[in-house]
Write a structure and sequence with these properties.
The protein is α/β, with parallel strands linked by helices. The chain has 15 helices and 16 strands. It is globular.
């Protein structure tokens, strides 16, 4: 089940304000989806996520098929019941994780055979199996199995990956059984504009419920990411949701919204939080730095999250240096709040037709870029 209502469009950019209706509720777009790889957004529980206002989170097919196993999750009533999350879930197909295991997998047109990074067990992932796993998990949105080539792969290799992803897309559609789960196609093509355009047109002709732009967070420069997203997004149907996979920094999100993207996910806010890098309206803050040792300031005076309302930089630095588990929860709450509030603000501006990406990019400054 999926309905996408386009509520308004920007008169100065390709940005869109929309609403997704899925089996477990509505999602206001543009939206950032916190990543809950193994049925958990690391260090947080479902109540934390609800308090942050998250309407949809992401789960990972590859990790969940390895442990605890999709059959076990199905016997527990599906992923929503298993993790006590009543709102929406998107699951990726596992393809990106499998293809990153270049020394542990064997790829054919049938699918991919790989060794588990957990215990070395042999697994096979086919398009049909990827759909079956996600149907067992019971997510609201499932993704097709695709081949994600490296950013700088030769054009012949990328073209072969596009052809294989197209064939797998057809098989995923044929394998789909659940009527309450939407299936998205994934546009590949690396940095080659002609391959991107060709693949987008082919997938659109298949009639997926939504479309993702894949393979743009595998080593490309920010400029190349922006170029490919600006090229690809307008070639996807205006009446269906557009999802930019695995991207990225706050500035990446702003540029993606301006290009017409509706959905985003990235591990950056959660991973960077655990590594001691916090996003603030004044730029990036590295909590281990000595300047915070005796600071009674919150992480961000303009932030209303639980962490900023209750705790000082000095306390958070102490927790981080002492490797106290509490730090990971408080830091993750703050970083996700920063991302979700960014998207809420952008949505409000789109409703007034006041969204200006240049203003946002200047405002974000040092908070807009950087890895963990």
């Amino acid at each position: 089940m999926l309905r996408f209502d386009l509520l308004s469009t920007s008169t100065t950019t390709r940005a869109r304000r929309g609403r997704l209706t899925l089996s477990h509720g509505t999602v206001e777009t543009p939206v950032f989806m916190p990543v809950g790889t193994a049925a958990s957004v690391k260090s947080l529980d479902s109540r934390d996520l609800e308090g942050l206002g998250a309407e949809i989170i992401l789960g990972n097919t590859y990790h969940l098929m390895l442990r605890p196993g999709d059959d076990l999750v199905a016997r527990r009533g599906g992923l929503h019941r298993f993790m006590d999350w009543s709102r929406c879930i998107l699951t990726d197909s596992g393809g990106f994780q499998v293809f990153s295991l270049s020394t542990l997998r064997r790829l054919t047109d049938a699918g991919v055979t790989f060794r588990s990074h957990v215990d070395g067990s042999l697994f096979e992932l086919t398009p049909e199996r990827a759909v079956a796993i996600q149907e067992n998990l019971g997510s609201d949105i499932a993704m097709q199995l695709d081949e994600c080539p490296p950013a700088l792969a030769p054009k012949a290799d990328v073209a072969a990956a596009v052809r294989r992803s197209t064939a797998w897309a057809r098989r995923c559609l044929e394998a789909k059984k659940r009527g309450d789960q939407a299936l998205f196609g994934i546009v590949q093509g690396a940095l080659f504009e002609d391959l991107r355009a060709e693949h987008a047109a082919t997938l659109v002709s298949m009639g997926f419920a939504g479309y993702a732009i894949g393979g743009v967070s595998v080593g490309e420069s920010p400029e190349d990411i922006d170029r490919i997203v600006r090229l690809t997004a307008p070639q996807l149907p205006a009446d269906k949701p557009r999802y930019l996979m695995g991207v990225g920094t706050p500035s990446d999100l702003v540029r993606g919204v301006a290009a017409g993207v509706d959905m985003f996910d990235c591990v950056m806010p959660t991973r960077n939080a655990r590594n001691g890098m916090l996003f603030t309206s004044q730029g990036r803050l590295v909590i281990k730095n000595a300047e915070h040792r005796e600071s009674d300031l919150p992480l961000d005076a303009g932030c209303g999250c639980y962490t900023c309302r209750h705790y000082s930089r000095a306390y958070l630095r102490h927790l981080y240096v002492a490797k106290e588990i509490t730090y990971y929860r408080l830091a993750t709450l703050h970083n996700l709040s920063f991302y979700l509030e960014l998207m809420r603000s952008i949505r409000a501006e789109l409703e007034r037709d006041a969204f200006d990406p240049a203003v946002w990019l200047r405002r974000l400054g040092g908070a807009g870029e950087g890895a963990g």
